Fold these 4 entries.
Entry 1:
Amino acid sequence: MINRYSQTETFELPFSATVISDREVEYHLVRPQPLSSLSILLNENNTVLPISVEYRSQATDEQWLPLAKTVIYQMEDNRASEPLALDQSLVQAIRIKAISGSWGELPPTVTGKRSQVDVIFNAQGSPPYALAWGSHLASSASIDAKQLVPASELPADGLSGLPQAYLAEPFILGGEERLKATDPAQSSSQWQTWLLWGMLILGVLGLGFIVLKLAREVMGSKDNK
């Protein structure tokens, strides 16, 4: 399988917004996406606003990473600030803070764009063909284009001249559980980590109990004197 990024075909992915305050808002995608650009549009005309933009590759990441400090604007003649270039960075969450001023009643609208990915595969047997994706346990099966399609077999216009397969109705194979499945080694590692934390917490509690007991004994001996 070959992944080939196209510079002309893109898909827009709208973020859902969670307003923290009138100067801070967080945005989320359902799943991480390799974004080529990020559009931040104000919802009020004739507005100029300096902002800071941070992101998380995974919604579960603890730390926000700096993305940009920029100025966004929206004018009545539909002129607006340019999107931020991301170069296929993996993004699931965005946090925007107004450096000075506010965006008004409605927070900015954030839309991510990702480049179209053309998947070239070796068709075996008769159609229809099933393309399975999304398993957390799956390993990469990509190979170099020259290995999959020898130069002697390429059409005159190259890879773009290969026959196209068209999308039929999608169907679910493993569902959400398969997307988040972990292998036995990873599950064992997670279990051992939780066990270690449990032992550390019990040790701290036990040490605290001993210190408290000694403190009471010392105070009791002083009272007897």
Entry 2:
Amino acid sequence: MKIWLILQTIAFESASFYLVFDKEMTPTLWVAFFTSHAIACASFTALSWILLPKKYKRPVVSSMSFLFFFNYFLPLIGMLGTACSLLVALYLPRKPNIVTWEECEKSPLPQNPGDEVNTQFGTGALREILLHNGDPERRLLAVGAIRHLPRQHAVPLLQLALKDLTDDVRLLAYASLESIETQINESLSLFKRQLAHQPSANKAYEVAQQYWELCYLGIAEGVLRKHYLEQAEQYLHQANVIQDSASSNLLLGRVLLEQQRPKEATIHLERALEGGLLVKQVAPYLAEAAYRSGDYQIAKQYIAYFPEQKGEKLSQIKEYWV
């Protein structure tokens, strides 16, 4: 079959070129040329299709049409190009790479990771170093890098470092946590003085925000945490008395949720929603409040507003509930 197609291709293509170069062309001879060339292309297309690997044979119409028209509109050159491509692919295939690993240069741990939270030097990598690296110097270097991370990422890692068996690591972690707490307390004192000098909703909100941050970051615990939450609630109520705002109501709702008061939290969260905040900003807290109140249908309605990005905690909750 293959030999017959090869001979037929050579015969008809030779005949077509014989007509072009040996005789003065007339309309009849041009028709004969194109007919002979078409038969040669059809034969060569069938031959090429037979030689193609299985994965390139489907769909049949598309693959054969491409081969035919490519050879038809490029007389002789198209056939030579197709033949060379098939010969090279079939008899000189690329050798598979048997190396399954690549040696990489060891990357040093940065002293100032800055915004590299989502890179190989992010919180996950630093946590692994603190937990599993047996070299105290390496763990000490990790704590030094953690100090430059954003607070919400740094505090949990520093608290983990407080459990380290090496004194130097624990002391550096403690000093770093103490520094963060001092910064927040200094801001708190400043905002309180400004509020006392000139009462305003913004200043009351800033004071509450500092109290909330001490609790949110996990710096305050036990009775002290309870006291800070009460202080945050008090200043947020004061801010709302001066000027009711969506941001104050949102934070107040979160504070009340932390105090296990979901029904009161729902009132302020709904006011935040009415104040102009987007549903997706308030929905997680409204869903939490509804869940804690035992109203699972309402919780499910708010969960429907959660984002759908893969890997996000909220998207995982949404996938489970919805």
Entry 3:
Amino acid sequence: MATFRLHLPTPFSPKPPPNPSPLSTPEILPSPTDAGFHFREKLLYLQRDLHLDASRALAANPALRSAPLPSLRAASDALLSHGFIPEEAARILSHHPSLLTSDPEDPLLASLRFLLGPVAIPCSQLRRAVLRCPRLLVTSVPNQLQPALYFLRRFGFVVGELGRDLKELKEFPQYFAFSLEGRIKPRQQMLKESGLWMPLTDMLKLSDGAFRERLVDLRIESLDKRL
């Protein structure tokens, strides 16, 4: 009797695909919405373009973490448009990183217009004045700069009885950084009552003790001239 054997087909076993070559692996680009990617972009901008210490800038102004990169560039662009070179803009922003997340219109541009307008600092001297006192760019025009200038004009400190003019103010823009009520008015009043004159730099930069000593010296000198 013949024997029949049933031949079953060999089960198909697909071969695993070959490992892709590293050279053929497509590059995965960061998504435009990748928050980490944008944060790294900001760090590079702070460090490479502005030469800032990113850690210190973030500590001084935590809003930098969430601010978009274009808003960070706005402050630097505003300074460059007024003749500051990149190194000078970086120096100013390193002193006051809050400008990087502030609306450039106020206080930065408002302060620059105030210096060029009411204070009448020539465009050619604007950079020098601001670099002497970068704090001017974070000072409120209506709350501090305008009242300080008004005081000078109102009480004859710029022109008039004490013989001052705007040239002295242009040479000492730091004047606007001092407290009007805490230092400027009291010292001006003491000079006025004594009929004495003192350069703005001495009047405001001296400590309270040194100012009083200088005032005594001026009174003695005034008496000697009368004798």
Entry 4:
Amino acid sequence: MFAVIKTGGKQYRVAANDLLKIEKVEANVGDIVEIGHVLAHGEGENVTFGAPFVDGALVTAEVVEQGKNRTVIAFKKRRRQNSRRKIGHRQLLTTVRISEILLGGAKPTKTAAVKAPKKEAKAEAATEAKAEAAPKKEPKAKAAETAAAPLFKAPKGEPDDLTVIKGIGPVAAKDLAEQGIITFAQLAKLSDKDVAKIDEHMPFSADQIKDWREQAKELAKK
């Protein structure tokens, strides 16, 4: 028995166990694919034609290989126009072996590959990946907490008005207070290491901080 099928915009005459190269079908090697566009079938001189397809007819095929056809070059040139265009195309192909030609709504003995379990497996893998990635968020949270902690421990008691120091305005005074610096004595006792720390984490230069430190020393004596 033979059948005439249509797939990928082309027609093929096939019989059982025929090897056929058709335009790419999304399937893995070993999968069974179903081709429902059967234009005709017959045996010998007894041929049945569809309108356009034969009702209840089905052809199944096993995927043997996924590959590519040879490269086809299309070259176009326009005379006296200095126009040339070269385009290459390499068609993706699937090699299949015809398994069965079924008529009258008969069901294939080999069913098409079920793709649902693959999705479930991917979903499970994604869930496991998320579960593994979840603990990694803890160090980030700890880092955020560390970054939010002030650079210095604020002393007890009333804060000084740091805006008295030349170069420290209300915004700068607020930034310093958020980092635990609220008195002249603190500024006066800053070491060079502390200055470098402020320079790294705050929008103030080392020269600014050193200048404020010298002014704070004079104010702390009063």
